[in-house]
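ugh finaly. both done.
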Amino acid sequence: MIKPDAIQRSLIGELISRIERKGLKIIGLKMMKLSEEEIDQLYDIHIGKSFYLELKKFIGSGPVIAIAIQGENAVKIVRLLAGATNAPEANPGTIRGDYGANLTKNIVHTSDAPKRAEYELNILFNENEFVEYELINKTWIK
């Protein structure tokens, strides 16, 4: 998910480009304003932590872009592309290393495991919002 800080900084195209250049397939994409309930569901593992209210306020401050991605090891690959969660600790060349400001304003949200990705996608998308198709360049990225 592309967070409000990336949208305000006009980084949408750059971030989507990195996903595509890695050979991953985008099967769902939409801009949305998350409700308080959706934020609580998406970040349920952080409720009660010292930074949660700041995170919730930030995520609710503007639109986000939800992205459903498919591909072999997609969750792991996206996590590597994103870099460390705390942006100042993220390696240069990663999304957070190149553009992130701090732990909260770190440009993107990524799922940490396939099961969690499925849970989060169910919050962000309806089943009919996923589009299945074949990438014609599939033979080049194997």
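ok and the 2nd:
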Amino acid sequence: MRMEEYVRIVAGVLVLIFVILSAAHSRFWLLFAALVGINLIQSAFTHWCMIEKTLEKFGIRRYYRFDEGDID
């Protein structure tokens, strides 16, 4: 998978967790879901995303080379 797909997975999981926590505990958890959304919007304009930087530290590469089989 590409970095973009990992970012979408992490963002989606975080939003779901925060929405579930807001339903079970407190509505303030929705603020964290909003922060994930704000981060996605600002990354579209600035091309800097905290989730990408964190995933790179875990060894996930930003781009694949064509000879590795990912031609999408």
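summary for the 2nd one i guess: Helices lie at 3-24, 29-46, 50-57.
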